[in-house]
């Protein structure tokens, strides 16, 4: 079965997720629909003198503290394993296609830097590099492509694994790359993953310096307030999601259960500012419209939008502008999973695509919680506070990243 452009239709046959709400697809989905929050106070490291002391963390494994790449790998591995189990494809350690991993950029973290500086007896980078030179472990721990290489070995994927980062659109970009590989006939199946494990001191400080984080520290569960009048920033979070993508005909031939279809992908960049979107909204509008065109749908055929919905004044304003420009005076309902799980950054696009598919599966819109006072400048139906049953065939999932990197996906029910 081909799409309106004659390309192979791309089916989703497996989903795996982990967030601050818990480990596993069904636990996350049930808590999202119940309006539960996974945001808590940070206990992983001291937060004295930090402006923001809350996050959506996933508990580390027992033993020595994990670096962000190691934590990202652990979360990604869990999500992939769960997705493969549901898809029922391949044998243990032998997957018949490539891996696309979206993950955060990596840098040596403060504890390692401080240790190197002590051993070098100097704070300058040349001396620290010299101290690190004999140790391959540091390189292996922080090599950007190392996580995907180890995951590819673990799950037996084919070809060189692809590692990518496109800021907050990363997870959606990984899915787009997987979809396009199947459409080009390069593979019949692939794994698309977005993972994030970067709640560590330097990351929190950097986002605080950008004035991007909520400082509602006294009420962690109520801090993330997308589209609400008193929103004051996003809440950093961790998590991962993996989708098993397959050529629809191949999946049907092997008797796989089809969860849904990735019907369209659209991207657009504006290169306007390090963190802000261009006020004209062209890139956001372009990504949404490109996704609809790629899916062969008109705006009126979208039943629900899984919003980027970070809870920053700037993002929510721009997403509202995009919704009204694309859908007119009667846009479909839009809600933000980030109100409950926080902003999982590199994982967010993949997680929200996964939740969009579960929205279609169960015909249930997850809410936007903490919506106490509507913003008069955001005239949208944000599914406030309580889930809602609805007929859902097509979902638009928005991912708008820092630096103007925007990717939108259209997820759909299996065609009858």
UniProtKB/TrEMBL annotation:
Cited SUPFAM superfamilies: Thiolase-like
BP GO terms, sorted: fatty acid biosynthetic process
GO molecular function: 3-oxoacyl-[acyl-carrier-protein] synthase activity
GO terms under cellular component: cytosol
Highest taxon, organism lineage: Bacteria
Listed pathway(s): Lipid metabolism; fatty acid biosynthesis
Domain Ketosynthase family 3 (KS3): 7-413
InterPro entries named among the record's database cross-references: Beta-ketoacyl_synthase, Ketoacyl_synth_C, Ketoacyl_synth_N, PKS_Beta-ketoAc_synthase_dom, Thiolase-like
Keywords noted in UniProt: Transferase
PANTHER family: 3-OXOACYL-[ACYL-CARRIER-PROTEIN] SYNTHASE, MITOCHONDRIAL (PTHR11712:SF336), POLYKETIDE SYNTHASE-RELATED (PTHR11712)
Family membership: Belongs to the thiolase-like superfamily. Beta-ketoacyl-ACP synthases family.
Name of this protein: 3-oxoacyl-[acyl-carrier-protein] synthase II
């Amino acid at each position: 079965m081909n799409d309106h452009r004659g390309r192979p239709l791309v089916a989703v046959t497996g989903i795996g997720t982990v967030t601050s709400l818990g480990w596993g697809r069904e636990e996350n989905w049930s808590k999202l629909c119940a309006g539960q929050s996974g945001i808590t106070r940070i206990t992983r490291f001291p937060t004295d003198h930090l402006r923001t002391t809350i996050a959506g963390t996933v508990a580390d494994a027992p033993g020595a503290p994990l670096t962000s790449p190691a934590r990202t790998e652990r979360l990604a591995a869990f999500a992939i394993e769960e997705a493969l189990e549901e898809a029922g494809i391949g044998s243990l350690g032998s997957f018949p296609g490539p891996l696309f991993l979206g993950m955060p950029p990596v840098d040596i973290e403060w504890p390692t830097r401080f240790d190197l500086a002590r051993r070098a007896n100097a704070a300058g980078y040349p001396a620290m590099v010299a101290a690190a030179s004999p140790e391959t472990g540091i390189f292996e721990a922080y090599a950007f492509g190392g996580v995907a290489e180890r995951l590819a070995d673990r799950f037996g994927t084919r070809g060189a694994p692809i590692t990518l980062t496109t800021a907050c659109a990363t997870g959606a970009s990984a899915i787009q790359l997987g979809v396009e590989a199947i459409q080009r006939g390069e593979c019949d199946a692939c794994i698309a993953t977005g993972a994030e494990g970067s709640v560590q001191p330097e990351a929190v400080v950097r986002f605080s310096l950008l004035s991007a984080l909520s400082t509602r520290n006294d009420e962690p569960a109520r801090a993330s307030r997308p589209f609400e009048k008193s929103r004051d920033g996003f809440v950093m979070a961790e998590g991962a999601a993996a989708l098993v993508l397959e050529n629809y005909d191949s999946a049907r031939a092997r008797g796989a259960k089809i969860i849904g279809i990735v019907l369209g992908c659209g991207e657009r960049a504006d290169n306007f500012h390090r963190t802000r979107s261009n006020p004209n909204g062209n890139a956001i509008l372009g990504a949404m419209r490109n996704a609809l065109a790629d899916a062969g749908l008109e705006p009126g055929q979208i039943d629900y939008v899984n919003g980027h919905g970070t809870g920053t004044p700037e993002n929510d304003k721009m997403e509202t502008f995009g919704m009204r420009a694309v859908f007119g005076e009667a846009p479909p309902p839009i809600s933000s999973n980030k109100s409950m799980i926080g902003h999982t950054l590199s994982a967010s696009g993949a997680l929200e695509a996964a939740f969009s598919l579960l929205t279609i599966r169960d015909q249930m819109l997850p809410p936007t919680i903490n919506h106490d006072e509507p913003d008069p400048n955001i005239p949208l139906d944000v599914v406030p506070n309580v889930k809602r049953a609805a007929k859902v065939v097509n979902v638009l999932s928005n991912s708008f990243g820092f630096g103007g990197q925007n990717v939108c996906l259209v997820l759909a029910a299996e065609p009858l």
